[in-house]
What we know:
Oligomer: single chain
Number of strands: 0
Mean pLDDT: 96
Low-confidence stretches: none
Distance between the termini: 69 Å
Radius of gyration: 19 Å
Largest sheet: none
Number of helices: 9
Shape: elongated
Helix content: over 70%
Amino acid sequence: xxxxxxxxxxxxxxxxxxxxxxxxxxxxxxxxxxxxxxxxxxxxxxxxxxxxxxxxxxxxxxxxxxxxxxxxxxxxxxxxxxxxxxxxxxxxxxxxxxxxxxxxxxxxxxxxxxxxxxxxxxxxxxxxxxxxxxxxxxxxxxxxxxxxxxxxxxxxxxxxxxxxxxxxxxxxxx
Length: 174
């Protein structure tokens, strides 16, 4: 029946919003995705799973994993880019994990190189790591990718400046 995918999704919403039974809602949303992976509600169900894990259950790793699942399974969905952005934001804000936040932003820029925000994401990856001596090399690599892949972008010159500053800091430490 054409209504089955929506019915499973709505059952998840009822468990989440009316009953506040977040674990049961996740099970229901997951059933919806697993039963109808190409259904209209699959990405929305995964999105709800990620948000419940992050916002309600403080299970940040599960939320990040679900956002990444959206990008992996549905790379052409309009929300795939936003899902990886949310994963990076969760690494940064909830877990204070700049290294994985930067890696996720860089992955996003690599996966969608023609997206207008790709150069900015690579630059942000470098920005997240530029002040940590143990991550200087990674920061430089992200800035170099901005310069190499997007030489005429407004962030390219700033990336060159940031690389020079990091290299100066590295020389002072020797």
